Amino acid sequence: MASGEVLDTAALLAWPVERMSGSLVVPGQRAELVRISPDRELALDAANLIWELPSDDALDRARDLAITTGDMAGLSAVDFELLALAIEMGATLVTDDYRLQNICELGGVAWSSVTTEGIRSMWSWELRCSGCGLIVNTPDTPSPDRNLGNCRECGSELALRRRR
Ligand SMILES: [Zn+2]
């Protein structure tokens, strides 16, 4: 299954191996993996990753973008190649690196973060009246007891509901 995703090394460490099939990576990540997690590097042989080097043209475009946004200084060579590969392939760059996310956002390159993609059980919640449906702002402090309180409009109990 072609997923059209370029995975940074954090994704290679965090994602289930079967989730990565057909994803793009750069050869320089192998050395990073050997350094950080040799066992993981072995496991990835079974992951059906596509090891690809970006073209010089894509590297030039990535360089222009990184210079424009001012993020160049903090990028590693591997980060930079991942960015160029995403640009070249029109793929989504999966990264938790805020510099890369920033460049993608400003440069119109699709990106997603490693953790929200990898952990399916993350939800966001809203506090909602069980009677009239009023959505109440989430408090910024923990509740003193487990009582969520009552609706200021109709007095019914408030409940936590999954957002969306
Ligand atoms: Zn209500």
Describe the overall structure.
With about 160 residues, the chain is an alpha/beta fold. The chain has helices at about 10-15, 30-35, 40-45, 55-70, 75-90, 100-105, 115-120; strands at about 5, 25, 50, 90-95, 110, 125-130, 135, 160. The strands form three sheets. Strands 1-4-5 form a three-stranded parallel β-sheet. Helix 4 (about 55-70) packs across helix 5 (about 75-90). The longest helix is centred in the middle third of the chain and has 14 residues, at about 55-70. Bound molecules: zinc ion. Zinc ion (ZN) binds next to loops.
The domain tally reads 2
- Which hetero ligands occur in this complex? zinc ion
Share of helix among residues?
25-40%
Widest beta sheet: strand line-up: 1-4-5
- The fourth-level CATH homologous superfamily of the largest domain is 5'-nuclease
Instruction: Provide the CATH architecture of the largest domain.
Output: 3-Layer(aba) Sandwich
Structural class estimated from helices and strands: alpha/beta
Which H/E pattern describes the elements? EHEHHEHHEHEHEEE
Write the layout of secondary structure elements.
Blueprint: E1 5-7, H1 9-14, E2 24-25, H2 28-36, H3 38-43, E3 50-51, H4 56-69, H5 77-89, E4 92-94, H6 98-107, E5 111-112, H7 114-118, E6 125-129, E7 135-136, E8 158-162
